[in-house]
Design goal:
Length: 219
């Protein structure tokens, strides 16, 4: 399998070449173009109940697209629904946390689950649950805007709308910015507080910020 990430950081997408019999899984609706000799199936990653749970609580698609090559050299193009950067990550039996909507594609050895973000996350505007990717294999996720890869060594605070992914070596909690007054009236709302050592991926734009900006023109 050959996978190239092209057009980063503005309009990242995947150009994939599969050998005969190879398979790749992707978010439903991510296929932009493909050769006619690719076989398309659908799959509930982890089974019906886990897939349904991700759909209800994390906003992910119930079904994932499964593309299998009938011949060597079959080509597939995958694009996320929003403009931004696509990141490749290799899972080696250590989970990676993803925010809702950032999963794009993975190899067969990767499984997706959900992680509860706490009751405060319900009011963050980004959802109460996060996606937990486990297993072994390549994983691709996307952002809205460009991605900043930051190495945390100690404590680090990020607005919930700007977090894309983080490594499991980091401890995290959803909390407010200072006291209740600051949280409600500073314009920042809730944040993710990280501590420990590990990487976190941030996006330079947020969907909630875009929605708020557009709301001013929808009157």
């Amino acid at each position: 399998m050959s996978v190239q990430v092209v057009s980063n950081p503005d309009f990242g997408h995947l150009e994939i070449v599969l050998d005969q019999g190879q398979t790749i899984l992707c978010e439903s609706g991510a296929m932009a173009a493909m050769d006619s000799d690719l076989q398309l199936d659908t799959k509930m990653m982890g089974g019906f109940l886990p897939a349904l749970w991700r759909k209800v609580v994390a906003g992910e698609s119930l079904l994932s697209g499964v593309y299998t090559a009938k011949r060597a050299g079959s080509r597939l193009w995958l694009s996320p629904p929003i403009p931004g950067q696509v990141i490749a990550y290799s899972l080696q039996d250590k989970p990676l946390m993803l925010t809702s909507g950032s999963f794009l594609a993975c190899e067969e050895g990767v499984q997706l689950g959900t992680k509860f973000g706490g009751l405060r996350a319900m009011f963050s505007g980004e959802g109460m649950f996060f996606i937990e990717a486990r297993g072994r294999g390549s994983l691709w996720f996307n952002s809205y805007g460009a991605v900043i890869e930051h190495e945390v060594n100690g404590e680090f605070i990020v607005d919930t709308g700007h977090v894309v992914a983080w490594e499991p070596s980091l401890q995290w909690t959803v909390t407010g910015m200072g006291n209740l007054f600051s949280t409600l009236f500073s314009g920042e709302g809730l944040v993710l507080r990280f501590s420990g050592s590990g990487k976190v991926w941030l996006q330079t734009r947020s969907m909630s910020g875009l929605a708020g900006w557009l709301a001013g023109y929808c009157r």
